[in-house]
Amino acid sequence: MDSCRLLVVSNRLPTSITRNGEQSWSTKISGGGLVSALLGVKNEETKWIGWAGLEVKDEIGQKSLTNVLAEKRCIPVFLDNDTTDKYYNGYCNCIIWPILHYLGIPQDDCFAKNGTYKAQYDAYKKANKAFADVIMEHYREGDIIWIHDYHLMLLPKYLKDRNSNMKIGFFLHTTFPPSEIWRTLPEGPELLRSLLASDMIGLHTYDLVRHFVSTCSNILGLESTPKGIVDQGKLTRISAFPIGIDADNFINTVQTSEVKMEMKRLKEKFGGRKIILGVERLDTIKGIPHKILAFERFLEENPEWRDKVVLVEIGVPSRSDVPEYQKLKIQIHELVSRVNGRFGTFHQVPIHHLDQSVNFPTLCALYAVSDVALITSLRDGMNLVSYEYVASQTTNKGVLILSEVAGAAQCLGAGAILVNPWNTPDIAASISRALTMPAKEREKRHQHNLAYVKSYTAQEWANDNLRCIHETIAEAQIPKQL
Ligand code: GDG
What EC number is given for this enzyme (predicted)? Predict the structure, then answer.
């Protein structure tokens, strides 16, 4: 791969920022798949451009934060609170996110709370333009721009309009729906045209590539080839790159004394009961109510397990200003309370539920002590939690129950028990099967998944994406040389 400067662009920077005083800031690296994937990219120089995550109105503050972040190779985009609310809470998370995950556009209080539809889309454009401005300020000829996710779908076009020589890759971390769902989005054609201004678009799986390509053909009437979409002689390459994790980080962290002590505490806390684990952002796509209903069914049908198993459900707060997410939280609380009320005793309850995130060592300890991971996403681009669980199960060889409609099912399907998240009785039966699975079968399934998780890592994913961007750019230059 050529040595070049890489500008990674995503809605958020990989650091969380707190203001302590006029010119005093603390920054902390945030976790997550994208951060670990990109930290491993071996490039001459990588810079990360993203929203600062907080409003900084004064110029002195903006300058001082920019200087602090420069040391971390990060460049902030500043957005005011009103734009952020309409762009992020509104258009990104009320409109595009549900469409991308095959759900309809909500019609009610989403607009009342986060501004009208038009105001939300205007804010989306404004935010994408603010990103384009910052990129243009820092861009040098030859840089590769690698844009991430649905927050920035208008950015490829805004950039190419200003400099048609720019080399742009785009990666979508979510699912992408069939064309008839995308068709319901009023701005769908405009967003597609902008995405196609990229040189290369990556999605997690071939199914998603197929959806994207057929949507471009059906809605825009464009020609598709095995490599991608052709518009007026220009090819935009569309390819599948299933994201991975930094498996060694989990394998090594579960060996640390801090995690081992936490594992011991957790085992004592749950008093020898089998642990079923759920970890996810509290999100409408993660199927948390479906999981609780299935666990309830399992307890109904298997009374002998009632005092021998606990479901630990970590629902990490997410998008808490969006009405759909507020409703979901209430629904989950009601369900947890019902199941605990029905099957709990004075001594213990069957669901241990937290509305909080946990720190990384605790997360690793939870992964490592759990006997089963239960993932019932209704749609999920990939689902990194399933990978992280596998990587952390070095001693337990726990069982992964995984939604068949998560992208991860296409990579871990042979080792996991796959379930349809809407099939409550089948998930309940799968819990029973997982808890009673013979050690030999658990070992075999675990080894299968571990081999995959270790071989296709976050770094491989990033390198493959970048290799493909370089190839596409090189191929596009061939006719000019003839
Ligand atoms: C999007 C797509 C796609 C979770 N709770 C805690 C915590 N986490 C970390 C996990 C994991 C990440 O958050 C979640 O990643 P997922 O992939 O499971 O889900 P999304 O957030 O929806 O991610 C998804 C992904 O992008 C990557 O392309 O797979 O389909 O929706 O890394 O470890 N980390 C800590 N405490 C927690 O409580 N420290």
Answer: 2.4.1.15
- Other C-beta atoms closer than 10 Å to the C-beta of 9 total 25
Q: What is the pLDDT of residue 38?
A: 76
Specify which residues 263 forms β-bridges with. Answer: none
Residue with the smallest CA separation from ligand 1 atom 26 is 173
Q: Collapsing DSSP states into helix, strand and coil, what is residue 200?
A: strand
Token digits of residue 356: 């909080």
8 Å CB contact between 94 and 324: yes
Q: Which single residue is written with the structure tokens 């599948």? A: 240
CB 198 within 8 A of CB 168: yes
Q: Has residue 477 got a pLDDT over 70?
A: yes
The Cα–Cα gap between 247 and 171 comes to: 21
> Taking the chain, what is the end-to-end CA distance rounded to the nearest angstrom?
23
Nearest atom of ligand 1 to the alpha carbon of 406: 30
Largest CA distance in the chain: 81
Whole-angstrom Cα distance, residue 68 to residue 24?
A: 9
**Is 276:311 a contact under the CB 8 Å cutoff?**
yes
Distance 32 CA to ligand 1 centre (A): 6
Rounded to an integer, the average pLDDT of 384-404 is 96
- Reduced to 3 states, what is the DSSP secondary structure of residue 150? helix
* 313 and 292 Cβ atoms separated by less than 8 Å: yes
According to DSSP, the residues that pair with 316 across neighbouring strands are 281
H helices present in 150-256, as ranges? 155-162, 179-182, 188-195, 206-220, 247-253
pTM, 2 dp = 0.95
**Two structure tokens written together for 263:** 């594992």
Rounded to the nearest angstrom, the distance between the alpha carbon of 343 and the centre of ligand 1 is: 30
Q: Please tell me if the CB atom of residue 148 comes closer than 6 angstroms to any atom of ligand 1.
A: no
* Rounded-to-integer distance, Cα 128 and Cα 161, Å: 13
